[in-house]
Amino acid sequence: MTVTSTSDSMTAEAPTAVYLDYQATTPVDPRVVDVMLPWFSERFGNAHSSQHAFGAQAALAVEVARGQVAELIGAQAREIIFTSGATESNNLAIKGAARFARRHGKGDHIVTFETEHKCVLESCVALADEGVRTTVLKVGADGLVDLEALAEAIEDDTVLVSAMAVNNEIGVVQQIAEIGRLCRERGVLFHTDAAQAAGKIPLDVEAMSIDLMSVSGHKLYAPKGVGVLYIRRRPRARLLAEIAGGGQERGARSGTLAVPLIVALGVACEIASQEMAQEHGRLIELRRSMLDQLQKKVPDLVVNGDMEQRIAGNLNIGFPDIDVLALMRALDDVAISTGSACTSESVEPSYVLQALGLPRSVSAGSIRIGIGRFTTQSEIDYAARRIAEAVAAQRGGQEAAAQ
Q1: DSSP single-letter state for residue 237
Q2: Could you give phi then psi for residue 160, rounded to 5 degrees?
Q3: Which DSSP symbol is given to 14?
Q4: Domain ranges of the chain
Q5: How many CB atoms lie under 10 A from the CB of residue 4?
Q6: Which residue out of 124, 183, 269, 342 is catalytically annotated?
Q7: In 10 A of CB 211, how many CB atoms?
Q8: Are strands 18-19 and 334-335 parallel, antiparallel or unpaired?
Q9: How far, in whole angstroms, is CA 83 from its chain's centroid?
Q10: Of 32, 5, 84, whose CA–CA distance to 266 is shortest?
Q11: Which of 132, 154, 171, 363 has the lowest tally of Cβ within 10 angstroms?
């Protein structure tokens, strides 16, 4: 797919290949690339060498980016810590908060949900060896959190609740403000993995009572390899650092900062702030078009997850009794994903879809369609036709084999 500006990308010509996997990663916006490139060679200073002009220039650029990220989520610039991505940020938030609490005798219990990203769930598993208990709550058939169940799960020694703002597979948007309010009332830290939310839905760490928030650059049209952990200062969220070293990033994350990537992330956040509302409406229309076309051609398809509480660019659908691996092979010119763990010759339903209680015939035949900034109507039309054709061809083959 050729990456152009949104306004220039609308074309009636059928594409030769279509990228619809925007929840997996996004292309770097050309406007971001333009701002980032000089920081690789022309302005190459180490941001921690501020005693000379080269370093001071880099340090200033980092602080500008810090402010741009903070503006997107309603934070203060000094509450933004740069990391390598949301996986590192999630590990730092969860392990760091739990270890600080245990060291100071403040509790040893975490609450999270079965549909969280693997790096959240695995961080909790790793902490079990240190004596930290984790309660993993179920979600509803729509993928949404039960606030009453969460309230009951919080104990006197609970130190942290971790709830994903937007699910990476089914795109559902959790009641983040309500979860944050509950945690604040109970004196518990609230962490949210916002990798799929930042730049796509409005976020405000103050209004939503968020103490820790993870963001990933490559989910919002910045490069891979850069992310953010927001750490609240008042009331202060205290962590133990995961990486030892020179004490950079206010002691939370040592290591030389990747200035070009950080500059890129800052610009990407600024663009998202300016264009989010308009882009939301455009993506809603593209998603509606995709779903309408598929439902007309494949009437028995199932939409996985709540359709109202959902980001605009996500569609997760199941085709009953379809071999999704064969379907993916047939769609070599349409980039979508299964949301499942693929092995050599089989696809197991993802743990997220299993958590919704879907029949295996649906969960094993589900695909995730991710629509984004550079998706066009002609790409939607082409992909909808190709997906429907592939489903029909497989079912026709099944019927022929049965006769």
Answers
A1: P
A2: -155, 140
A3: P
A4: 6-28+276-402, 30-270
A5: 13
A6: 342
A7: 24
A8: parallel
A9: 15
A10: 32
A11: 154
Q: Which residues, 6+ apart, have CB-to-CB distance to 7 below 8 Å?
A: none
- Give the other-Cβ count within 10 Å of 321's Cβ: 15
Q: How far is CA 115 from each of CA 21, 171, 261, rounded to the nearest angstrom? A: 19, 11, 30
For each of the chain's 403 residues, which pLDDT tens digit applies?
Answer: 434 444 444 445 667 799 999 999 999 999 999 999 999 999 999 999 989 999 999 999 999 999 999 999 999 999 999 999 999 999 999 999 999 999 999 999 999 999 999 999 999 999 999 999 999 999 999 999 999 999 999 999 999 999 999 999 999 999 999 999 999 999 999 999 999 999 999 999 999 999 999 999 999 999 999 999 999 999 999 999 999 999 999 999 999 999 999 999 999 999 999 999 999 999 999 999 999 999 999 999 999 999 999 999 999 999 999 999 999 999 999 999 987 444 334 557 789 999 999 999 999 999 999 999 999 999 999 999 999 999 999 998 666 556 4
Longest dimension (CA), the chain: 80
* Kind of pairing between the strands at 158-162 and 133-137: unpaired
Residue with tokens 């270890």: 99
- Write b or e for each residue in 160-198: b if 16 or more Cβ atoms lie within 10 A of its Cβ, otherwise e: bbbbbbbbbbbbbbbbbeebbbbbbeeebbbbbbbbbbb
Coil, strand, or helix at residue 240?
Answer: coil
- Contact predicate 67/261, CB 8 Å: no
The tokens describing 18, both together, are 């279509």
Instruction: Using alpha carbons, select from 347, 351, 291, 320 the residue that is nearest to residue 169.
Output: 351
CATH for 6-28+276-402, options being 3.90.1150.10, 1.10.540.10, 3.40.50.1000, 3.40.50.970? 3.90.1150.10
Axis-axis angle for helices 118-128, 86-103 (nearest 10): 30
CATH classification number, 30-270, choose in 3.40.640.10, 3.30.499.10, 3.30.450.40, 3.40.1010.10: 3.40.640.10
**124 assigned to active site:** no
Report which of 243, 236, 189, 196 is spatially closest to residue 215, judged by C-alpha positions: 196
pLDDT at residue 349 in the model: 76
